[in-house]
């Protein structure tokens, strides 16, 4: 698996990890959005198993310890499965959910 980082707007980055068809029939991509400002936010954590890849991708943009918010839209493993890993890596961060 290869995770990519693209700046989609000023200071907004899409982090994308595609899963091949042998892992998920038809293939699938997990996407997170990193918003940089005084209090950086990551939207969606992705599942726990891809956390090392996402962490590495974030590190190309900023130190993960700078995160202040870990946000997700609802409670499912693909949306917030790596929440504990993010909160451990960024101890000043707060979880935010609708």
Description:
- With 98 residues, the protein is of the alpha/beta class.
- It is built from three helices and six strands.
- It has a six-stranded mixed β-sheet with strand order 1-2-3-4-5-6.
- The termini are far apart.
In brief, what are we looking at here?
This protein is an alpha/beta fold. Helices cover 20% and strands 34% of the residues.
Secondary-structure blueprint:
Layout: E1 4-9, E2 12-19, E3 28-35, E4 41-43, H1 51-59, E5 69-72, H2 77-80, H3 83-89, E6 94-97
Parallel strand pairs: 4-5, 5-6
Antiparallel strand pairs: 1-2, 2-3, 3-4
**Tally of alpha and pi helices:** 3
Mean pLDDT: 92
End-to-end CA span: 30 Å
Category from helices, strands and their pairing: alpha/beta
What overall geometry do the principal axes of the alpha carbons give?
Answer: globular
Strand content: 25-35%
Task: List the uncertain runs.
Answer: none
Output the helix-strand order. EEEEHEHHE
Oligomer: single chain
The helicity comes to 10-25%
Give me the count of strands.
6
Strand order of the largest sheet: 1-2-3-4-5-6
Radius of gyration (Å): 13 Å
Largest sheet: 6 strands, mixed
Which characteristics define this entry?
single chain, 98 residues, alpha/beta, globular
